[in-house]
Amino acid sequence: MNLSNFDAFLAVMQTGSVSLAAEKLFLTQPAITKRLKSLEEELNVRLFEPAGRGIQPTQAAHELLPRVKHWLLEYEDIKHALSHAQSQIGGILRLGTSHHIGLHHLPSMLKQYVQQYPDVQLDVHFVDSEQAHQAVLSGELELAFLTLPPQFDARLNYQPLWQDALQFVVAPFHTLAQQQDLKLEDLVSYPCLLPAAHTYTSQITLQAFEQLGLKPQANMSTNPLESIRMLVSIGLGWSVLPSTLINHELVALPVPLVLRRELGMVTHPARTQSRAAAALIALCSSNLTSAL
């Protein structure tokens, strides 16, 4: 049975369309359609039906999905287990990272990694921390670098790597920028821009307000922190951003509250680890030790 057929099936089930699946797998739409047809012929069952201008999965497809996921995870475990018998470190390493970590913390370490292990093909997925967390849990990613959640999941391993100081910021011409001795009570009178409430960074911020019985005026939300920085810089409200993102277009507010978030790595202890992943984890630990 052709593994590429399963990959195409999984991609269509995850994205909901042939076109998006083709983008995800870097294939043409006819190639995806051909693989789905081939899988249906192999299994002698109809997996998708026409629905308007697209397709929709049949009951058989929904029943097949968890089995395909499990089989592909088992297959990856087999490959990872066999890789330990090889002296050379290579293969594909699927990892996830939040945009902020990928842009501001990972480049130097990944540069060192690819120079040390040129036979490893890095498959880097830029996703929100919450999505990366779930992808490691489901086995879609072998490891991920993300904002660590306020509550750890007992099924996963967490390795803190960086402390990220958060600061309250506004545009220099904002009314709050002209005030001194600010308190959280002063901020709730003005609109703010925060990531979506389910994000770990937003949870850290909202918890600080909730402890005082306060609720910020969040009139807009967007997850990429770089986007929030731009919206704050044009005067749409205040926000909470990592110190690394504060530039000349923003000013930090003198709020007597220290907020921090932990950035780190997440792995799944129940999955067989590839040698490529083990090498990256070891490099992370080495860099962390050197920084102490």
TrEMBL record:
<dbReference type="Pfam" id="PF00126">
    <property type="entry name" value="HTH_1"/>
</dbReference>
<dbReference type="GO" id="GO:0003700">
    <property type="term" value="F:DNA-binding transcription factor activity"/>
</dbReference>
<dbReference type="Pfam" id="PF03466">
    <property type="entry name" value="LysR_substrate"/>
</dbReference>
<keyword id="KW-0238">DNA-binding</keyword>
<comment type="similarity">
    <text>Belongs to the LysR transcriptional regulatory family.</text>
</comment>
<dbReference type="GO" id="GO:0000976">
    <property type="term" value="F:transcription cis-regulatory region binding"/>
</dbReference>
<dbReference type="InterPro" id="IPR036388">
    <property type="entry name" value="WH-like_DNA-bd_sf"/>
</dbReference>
<feature type="domain" description="HTH lysR-type">
    <location>
        <begin position="1"/>
        <end position="58"/>
    </location>
</feature>
<keyword id="KW-0805">Transcription regulation</keyword>
<dbReference type="InterPro" id="IPR000847">
    <property type="entry name" value="LysR_HTH_N"/>
</dbReference>
<keyword id="KW-0804">Transcription</keyword>
<dbReference type="InterPro" id="IPR036390">
    <property type="entry name" value="WH_DNA-bd_sf"/>
</dbReference>
<dbReference type="InterPro" id="IPR005119">
    <property type="entry name" value="LysR_subst-bd"/>
</dbReference>
<protein>
    <submittedName>
        <fullName>LysR family transcriptional regulator</fullName>
    </submittedName>
</protein>
